[in-house]
Amino acid sequence: MHAYRSHTCADxxxxxxxxxxxxxxxxxxxxxxxxxxxxxxxxxxxxxxxLCDPDSPVFKEVEKLRSEWCIRIDGTVKARDAELxxxxxxxxxxxxxxxDLEVLGAANELPLMVFGEQEYPEETxxxxxxxxxxxxxxxxxxxxxxxxxxxxxxxxxxxxxxEFQTPIITASSPEGARDFLVPSRLHPGKFYALPQxxxxxxxxxxxxxxxxxxxxxPCFRDEDPRADRSxxxxxxxxxxxxxxxxxxxxxxxxxVLTGVFEEFGGGRTVDQTWEQISxxxxxxxxxxxxxxxxxxxxxxxxxxxFAGSGFAIFAKLLEQEGTEIRxxxxxxxxxxKFCDRMNAFAQKEGLPGMGYIFWRDQGDGMEAAGPLAxxxxxxxxxxxxxxxxxGVGDAAFFLGGKPKAFEGVAGKARMxxxxxxxxxxxxxxxxxxxxxxxxxxxDEETGKIDFEHNPFSMPQGGMEALQGDPLQVLGYxxxxxxxxxxxxxxxxRNHRPEIMFKAFEIAGYGKEEVENRFxxxxxxFQYGAPPHGGCAAGIDRIVMLLADEAxxxxxxxxxxxxxxxDLMMAAPSEPTNEQLRELxxxxxxxx
Length: 591
What we know:
alpha+beta; eight-stranded mixed β-sheet; five-stranded mixed β-barrel; 26 strands; 29% helix; 25% strand
């Protein structure tokens, strides 16, 4: 017999009754039924109930066992009594009578329990992550993550892609976040960077004549943590293709992600048609460039109904340039109680409040109620109702000002309304391509033009588009939104050096600076670069959605805490003086 096991803790069933077997695993829990000891023995694959009574030659040793001791047992498989069968587990028809026991690893008193679903502080969970990872939910999440990555790889190979690896130690690259810098021992005073993404390398792979590339790529960004973002490193499904346009990228990645969500989505509906929404429309309708389309509410501009109206706050606001009033329809939200709740929500978000109108049945007809309705009068109120397609029992909420100042709050309000009124379909994965991103933005205070999004995207219209108003230039850039999260970002690349130099010139970067910062790529484009494009999908975030988790740390095996610290390995740590001398570095204490 094998030194540690003849079966796993998920293998045994009624057909094994009478066999002598060997199992190894962890003591999940111990139950003492008046001298009869029951142990749930757990390994990576499942659970088997083992038992021991005073007739067993190792009863005294079994009495000493505690939770999370790692043990090996030999025993005889027995059928459970019919009334004691556990249909919830594969081994529920049998139990194993212990004949021999070996303690492979005793456990000290536990800082957190593996059995049960008790909540523990995040600091405790991360410091003792190896224990946390033994818990059923995290075992399930990590298995899913591994299976999702394997599924992605298979689907990419099936589409004719090959996987190539790109460097981990490289030069700094402007991906929109801070680099992690690595000092060079051989070149004192100079630094490498960990790649924020394989962006430049995958483009160079296309220049090198490889038609389709993909990689499960580690990426490193020194970012502030959020619930849906790791503060240090993450993994993405990275791909690039030559001789393609934007739609080709969409048609390539959609079946891969659709298949993954169908395979691991737990039976939830997966959208087969992915709507394409412009960046500006997404901001207008949803207050976000990563809209949650499970919520059917679309916001609308209603400025004309308030211009010159009796509601002085909005009327005066509209006299200022660049302002507008937007309405958030709220089907079934037509009660003063609900409207007051939403008004309180707006105040928590730092606004004075949120105007509203609701429509109620007065027996002989419909009546518009609320402070706004009284101020603007029945004619304007009716025009708003008709524009929004609302009726009795419905409401509408209003926000005004410069869109960028209130869009975020409006988007949050839209989601709260959808959730509270039961309009959001929770059993669905709703996808949308966000397209037509503006390449440039203007600083309101300085008037300076700079890149709003990826500077390496091909402008729509090429060189000709760059001759006009920069703020009207759109890029062949796209994001994929799902259930309120950005899952993927990509672009058709600007592979023409003359267009690239012009695009950077508009943002104030001279030719020499571009050549210094991106010399490798710019030089390569001088030698017959093909049109190319690609995208990258965040694996951590995809698994977070599939596992129905609200925090990305629940699907990362060894995550950092909110302060970007690894409590288990005590990182970051102070270097020794010897290490600093080797690297020609000196640490200056912050003031």
